[in-house]
Design brief:
alpha/beta, 38 strands, 52 helices, seven-stranded antiparallel β-sheet, seven-stranded parallel β-sheet
């Protein structure tokens, strides 16, 4: 571009020293910066171009890129704050110039990603903002002056003075000192050229008269006052903001636009609670307009003067020699004015008009809520383009058009509202750049004083800029600048000025409720020797440090406060409350003690071939592990003398399967038609032995268990009984395994049996045991050889039946057969069990129960095209062989028995000529149906025994197996109840650990620290380290020995969810807790990898920091004696349990801290606390007590209702430990009278809560308590529930961590409620659970809940990237809506709803709507239940 002489002059001065280029708007300041950037960028250092607003980032970056042709990156918005350091480093490495908002550079400096000595040039656009605590000034104040090799500074501005009342000379001097630069203006030689490009519009002055709307304003006041009585305190504040906004529109714009604004309000989503007020205002406005003159009911005189000014400028433009279309900017102060005025200008002025407003604010305010969403950058660009192209005549704009934006030249600027400061005046006036342009003032009587000040200051600035004061040789350094600390590793700095912000940030992150906002208290002290000022800082009661005294004094209060903040931050750093970048540690940034260990475990797991994590990180697969007793290689015996084959030593165990009740069992099977009339003889024949490669140790023996193949009323008793050692030759083993293959592949079917395992037999992950038929205590080799070869060898003969039953042998041989039939139309064989031989029927007989009548011969010919050869052959009466099942679901079913054998079996007649005898006898088929379930249980038992042996702690066999059994296994037991108990105890144990270890942590940090011990990921990783998950049986599918689920060259794998492993660990904790108490549970957790100390080794005095010598106040002493019936060894624990965070502001508390500073200080020289428990609030004890009460109630319910399903047990616990329940119990036992608090909000909330139950007393357990607990419309103050938990925590600590002591003294407070309202019969059932259980009672599992997910609108995308740049911009419209939603939620604003549909057998029954998925699901279940209750369930369910 063409460079002007004054630009070259300023550029040359910038090369020599730090300068502030103070040039009028539109004279090319950015080009000067581009010239300097291009010159300095050759030094291989970074260049930062800083802007004040997001809108300017893109504009200035494009300007520099197009001028310098360098690599320019642009950065703005909130998203960059979340970028990781690695990404920032890559971005910085590939860019030469970085254009960004100043806050981002501050962040980069704070975390030492960039240092000032790595920067060659800092450009401050609109540098007049470099005052006070603006980001520009913070960069110069906190970093620039501490850098040895400082970057060059270039400031760009149109006016050095920002404040209207500031003395010009001092303002110029201050700006120069703050930027360490001197103000430069062109010399007289180049001044004339500058004037050619400087705007000098003609000024017009229009004066308006204020309109009188006192009567209408008075009426509005009355209406708003009446509405305020219906709202809460927050709602009243919001209503005042609306009233002020409407009042401004009335007085500034007039009744017409007030009515327009009311119409806009009535269309705003979320303001529904105020619609009646707006309608009433509209009605009153109409009535008022009828009784007044049109002049008064129209626009204000100010609006008329604006229309007059536009008309006058249009006429002047029409008379000009060079006629151009009208292009005018009207500057207003408020967004509402910018939105409403174009309607009047277009309608009454006949001019095309548009609106230009800025983006949303960073803070919530009434203007953000009630105004339209701020213009996005794209929308502003579109409006400016239309203005530039002449499609808009008049642009009504807020201050967004004053500073920096590339506004095209226009012929007129009108100030509808006065500029806020001299900068706004100079910049808005500079927009009128056309020749013969106009600058019009619209001034009222009340504006005259400000108008004169602006004019006078504008003149003074012009004078002083001609001869600016010299740069102060004494730098900006003062006593604060000499004090700082640097982190030894990261290089991050902390000084007194930054400490103020960090301290307030630390306090804001402390846990708090709606009754108290944590803030530091500054207590003023006289300076050293009575001179100057100093402060003592008192932090909130839940802070790591409560009181810090600063010994040095300062000359001003502001400096003294900064020093006090600095010393306090140093104390917090020593207490490890700040990170390595000197930012307060939050719950999101807290380093956890197990993080490094978990990283090592994950790395080690990734190297294991046996372990694979799936892509979703929620499931993993591992090579299955089988019990050692079932997978070990057998021991070789001596060589057999006759065959010279080697023998292996096996151990035979009889698999005893006997009916528990023989007569009842026989009647049941006869009724079920399970096997026909000879079923008892067949089942007596069906005996099996389990051959294992190693002997079963006594401590691992399988205890007898019940197994029901039909229904729970008729179970079998299954046991293993050692028979003898069984030497087996290799050839015999081969035949035995072939027998197993034939048996299971035939009975289970080829799909269910799997594929043959071709892996090496020596594999440790392969089942090695054998299941062989037995007769009379011996292996039935006769049946084995018959099945494998068709006939037994000569040396093997065993009778099929007992001698006394020889007369029935022929019948038994017939009925101990299974026949198969294959239709010519289907390749699939169907197997049938022979029930009886119908000698009364032949091939020429009519088929029973078929219409029209037809004989067997005719049917065979017609159906299968087969002519029967034997007409006199008898007919077989058969029934289809049922598929093998595990049948565990029969015992676990809570509904009616739906066992297949309970249904009358289908009887079919077959012609023997068309059938083929199956070589597997019927009694093998019978037991083959049951073996998968029995063997799965056997395998799971021995796998559990391996884990029991590995852990090495005393626990019963059945309990260990229960811990490893999920509900999906369909055993008559599962780990879910134990998991509930173990989860509660793990919460207590981890709470004690972090409470003791992290003595400086507040409740929020304690909760985060505890998460590492109780999260599913943590439990899974520790279990993986111990290889515990390999001991969990896979209950998804069972395969016989020698078979896999699918063919694969890879090792077979079991797949588990991480949650299943975590639940198993919690169940193991619960099991050890039941078997050996808390000591054994803690031992198991230490074995698992948790560094949990034995509670008996913890000294309560050491960890509570208590001084036992303390007299309790009378109210606490009486409460301890009469209500708790417990005598505290350390009374201060009870006092702490009743102290709310708001007590921080108590004069008594503050005086105790200030008294005897030297002796009562609670901070050592290194910043650590000495005795702070007296000064603590209840939050830490509440954190502990919450876990204690949760466990005690879980333990009570677990033992009180041993047969209660785990889901119902969880529901009872939720009701018992809810905040509402604990608040009611606290009120019933008068915990409220002892609470130490100073919160008016709590008092009003408590009084409202107490009104519901004015006579509530310690003995109240009736319906009134129940109504209060389950009443969602009246919520108890959370302080009551917190104190109730904190007192339990205090007893727990004071008793030496004894849960039994807590229950002894808290049980009487809880039991009246637990025994009355937390029972299976009285506590409400969750609607979802109720609906599912009802469907299951009809054996229906076809109920589904599906969430309706709506796709987000395209215009609501949060971020966008443009042209490959590193530019991250928050979509302002979206952010605006998000902020608005948060604020309007306080006025019952309609939120975005979730929808869940309820289906039964794919039929839509009901739809639930709620604020979240859980509530929508609950509402859907409630509606579905009402629909089902009002009609026959059979209309929805095919199972009923």
């Amino acid at each position: 571009p063409d460079v002007r002489s004054y630009q070259v002059e300023v550029f040359q001065r910038a090369l020599e020293t730090n300068i502030i280029a103070c040039l009028p708007t539109g004279t090319g300041k950015t080009l000067i910066a581009a010239l300097l950037i291009r010159e300095i960028s050759a030094k291989n250092k970074l260049v930062f171009f800083l802007v004040n607003t997001v809108d300017l980032v893109k504009q200035q970056a494009n300007a520099i890129k197009n001028t310098t042709f360098l690599s320019v990156g642009k950065y703005s918005g909130q998203k960059t704050d979340s970028w990781k350091h690695e990404k920032w480093k890559k971005v910085i490495d590939k860019r030469q110039v970085l254009v960004m908002t100043a806050e981002i550079l501050i962040y980069l400096l704070q975390v030492s990603l960039v240092k000032l000595d790595e920067i060659s040039l800092l450009v401050f656009d609109e540098c007049h903002h470099t005052t006070k605590d603006h980001a520009y000034n913070r960069i110069m104040r906190e970093y620039h002056q501490y850098t040895a090799e400082r970057p060059k500074i270039l400031g760009l501005t149109a006016s050095p003075i920002k404040e209207i009342n500031k003395i010009v000379e001092k303002g110029i001097q201050l700006l120069q000192n703050n930027l360490d630069s001197i103000i430069i203006q062109p010399s007289s030689e180049t001044q004339k050229e500058l004037e050619r490009f400087t705007s000098k519009p003609k000024e017009l002055f229009l004066k308006y008269q204020n309109n009188n709307y006192d009567d209408l304003m008075e009426k509005m006041e009355q209406m708003f006052g009446q509405k305020k009585e219906e709202l809460s305190n927050e709602g009243q504040k919001f209503l005042d903001q609306i009233k002020n906004k409407l009042a401004y529109i009335l007085t500034s714009l007039g009744p017409v636009l007030l009515k327009v604004e009311l119409e806009r309000f009535l269309q705003r989503e979320g303001l529904e609670p105020l619609f009646d007020l707006f309608e009433e205002l509209k009605k009153e406005l109409s009535e008022w307009s009828k009784s007044n003159t049109p002049e008064k009911t129209g626009h204000t005189d100010k609006v008329h003067q604006l229309l007059s000014a536009l008309k006058q400028i249009s006429e002047l433009q029409a008379q000009a020699i060079k006629k151009k279309p009208l292009s005018c900017i009207v500057f207003v102060e408020r967004r509402q004015t910018a939105i409403l005025l174009p309607q009047i200008i277009q309608r009454e002025g006949g001019l095309r008009s548009g609106t230009l407003i800025g983006g949303s604010s960073a803070y919530y305010s009434a203007s953000n809520i009630l105004d339209d969403d701020g213009d996005s950058s794209k929308k502003r660009e579109d409006v400016l383009k239309e203005f530039r192209d002449g499609k808009i005549d008049v642009l009504v704009s807020t201050s967004v058009a004053e500073e920096g934006l590339d506004i095209p030249q226009c012929m007129a600027v009108i100030r509808f509202d006065l500029p806020r400061n001299p900068v706004a005046l100079i910049q808005s006036r500079g927009r009128a750049r056309c020749t013969d342009s106009y600058f019009c003032w619209i001034i009222g009587e009340a504006d005259y004083v400000q108008f004169m000040k602006l004019r006078e200051q504008d003149s003074d600035i012009t004078v002083h800029l001609e001869c600016p004061p010299p740069l102060d040789d004494v730098a900006v350094l003062n006593q604060l600048d000499e004090i700082s600390c640097t982190h030894p590793r990261t290089g991050a700095k902390l000084n007194p000025r930054t400490s103020v912000q960090r301290l307030y940030k630390y306090c804001s992150q402390l846990p708090h409720d709606n009754f108290q906002v944590p803030l530091p208290i500054f207590v003023e002290k006289s300076g050293v020797n009575g001179e100057g000022f100093r402060y003592q800082v008192i932090l909130p009661m839940n802070a790591a440090v409560q009181c810090v005294q600063v010994e040095c004094s300062a000359s001003s209060k502001r400096v003294a406060k900064a020093l006090a903040c600095y010393k306090t931050c140093l104390a917090l750093i020593n207490a490890n409350m700040f990170d390595e970048y000197y930012f307060p540690i939050s719950m999101a940034t807290l380093p956890l003690e197990l993080d490094s260990r978990f990283a090592e475990i994950e790395k080690e797991l990734s190297l294991r071939d046996s372990y694979r994590m799936e892509e979703n990180k929620m499931r993993f697969s591992c090579i299955p592990r089988y019990a050692e007793i079932l997978s070990a290689r057998p021991v070789e015996a001596a060589v057999h003398p006759s065959s010279l084959e080697r023998e292996e030593k096996w151990y035979s165990y009889l698999l005893s399967i006997e009916p528990k009740d023989e007569p009842n069992w026989l009647r049941h099977y006869s009724r079920c038609h399970l096997l026909g009339r000879h079923e008892q003889n067949l089942l007596k024949k069906a005996r099996y032995s389990l051959l294992t490669p190693r002997p079963i140790e006594k401590e691992s023996e399988l205890p007898p268990f019940l197994f029901s193949p039909c229904c729970p009323e008729n179970p079998y008793r299954v046991a293993l009984k050692f028979v003898k050692e069984q030497p087996l030759k290799e050839s015999t083993l081969t035949i035995a395994r072939k027998f197993q293959d034939i048996l299971f592949s035939t009975v289970m079917g080829p799909k269910r049996v799997g594929v043959k395992d071709r892996n090496d037999d020596n594999s440790s992950s392969k089942k090695q045991y054998l299941v062989l038929p037995t007769f009379d205590g011996r292996i039935d080799w006769n049946s084995i050889y018959k099945l494998v070869f068709g006939n037994p060898p000569n040396d093997v003969q065993i009778k099929d039946v007992d001698d006394e039953e020889e007369e029935e042998e022929e019948d038994i041989m017939i009925y101990n057969k299974v026949v198969s039939f294959q239709s010519i139309t289907s390749p699939k064989k169907t197997f049938y069990h022979i029930l009886r031989v119908r000698t009364d029927l032949t091939a020429d007989s009519l088929i029973p129960s078929i219409d029209p009548p037809i004989t067997f011969s005719q049917y065979s010919l017609k159906k299968y095209n087969v002519q029967l050869k034997k007409k006199n052959q008898p007919i077989l009466e058969v029934t289809p062989v049922t598929k093998p099942k595990d049948f565990w679901q029969i015992l676990s079913s809570s509904g009616p028995c739906v066992c297949p054998s309970m249904v009358k079996r289908r009887v079919i007649h077959l012609v023997p000529e068309l059938c083929e005898e199956d070589r597997v006898p019927a009694h093998f088929w019978v037991m083959g149906r049951f073996l998968p379930g029995i063997l799965r249980r056997v395998e799971a038992h021995f796998l559990a025994m391996d884990l029991r042996k590995k852990i090495g702690l005393p626990i019963s066999k059945g309990r260990m197996l229960e811990c490893l059994t999920p509900s999906s296994a369909l055993f008559p037991f599962s780990y879910e109840r134990l998991e509930t108990l173990g989860d509660a105890f793990l919460k207590v144990a981890s709470s004690v650990h972090v409470f003791v270890k992290d003595k400086y942590f507040d409740e929020g940090l304690l909760t985060t620290a505890r998460t590492q011990f109780i999260s599913n990921r943590s439990l899974f990783l520790l279990a993986a380290e111990k290889d515990l998950f390999s001991h969990i049986p896979s209950f998804i599918e069972w395969h016989p020995p020698g078979y896999l689920s699918k063919p694969s060259t890879d090792n077979p794998r079991n797949s588990f969810s991480i949650k299943l492993v975590a639940d198993t660990v919690e169940a193991l904790i619960g099991a050890h807790l039941l078997e050996g108490g808390s000591d054994q549970a803690l031992k198991f957790m230490r074995w698992l990898g948790f560094d949990f100390r034995n509670w008996k080794d913890l000294d309560y005095l050491e960890y509570s920091n208590q001084n036992p010598v303390m007299n309790l106040p009378n109210d606490l002493a009486h409460f301890s004696r009469d209500v708790l019936k417990y005598r505290f060894r350390s009374p201060r624990l009870l006092a702490e349990a009743f102290t709310h965070l708001s007590w921080h502001w108590s004069p008594d508390y503050i005086q105790r801290l200030l008294k005897n500073d030297s002796s009562n200080m609670n901070v050592k020289a290194d910043g650590r606390r000495i005795d702070v428990s007296e000064k603590h609030c209840y939050q830490r004890l509440e954190f502990l007590g919450d876990a204690v009460i949760d466990y005690l109630i879980t333990d009570y319910l677990f033992k009180k209702y041993p047969d209660l399903p785990p889901g119902r047990l969880t529901e009872l616990k939720k009701v018992s430990v809810s905040n509402q329940t604990l608040s009611c119990l606290a009120l019933a036992h008068r915990f409220d009278i002892c609470i130490r608090q100073l919160s008016s909000v709590y008092i009003s909330s408590f009084e409202e809560f107490k009104k519901v139950m004015p006579d509530l007393g310690p003995g109240a357990t009736g319906a009134a308590v129940k109504d209060l607990i389950f009443n969602d419309s009246v919520i108890g103050p959370k302080i009551l529930a917190d104190v109730f938990e904190a007192v339990a925590g205090a007893i727990f600590v004071d008793s030496g961590w004894d849960l039994n002591v807590v229950w002894k003294h808290y049980g009487p407070l809880l039991l009246p409620f637990l025994s009355t309202h937390a029972t299976p019969d009285t506590a409400p059932v969750h609607p979802v659970t109720k609906l599912i259980e009802y469907c299951q009672s009809y054996a229906c599992d076809q109920i589904k809940f599906r969430q309706i997910k709506e796709k987000p609108k395209k215009e609501e995308k949060v971020t966008k990237e443009t042209e490959g740049d590193d530019f991250m911009e928050m979509d302002e419209g979206y952010r605006k809506r998000e902020e608005k939603g948060k604020k309007l939620a306080r006025l019952s604003v309609k939120k975005k709803e979730k929808k869940v549909e309820v289906f039964i057998h794919e039929v839509l029954v009901a739809t639930g709507i709620g604020d979240n998925k859980a509530s929508a699901k609950m509402n859907g279940a409630t509606r579905a239940w009402s629909v089902i209750s009002a009609s026959n369930f059979k209309t929805f369910c095919k199972c009923a």
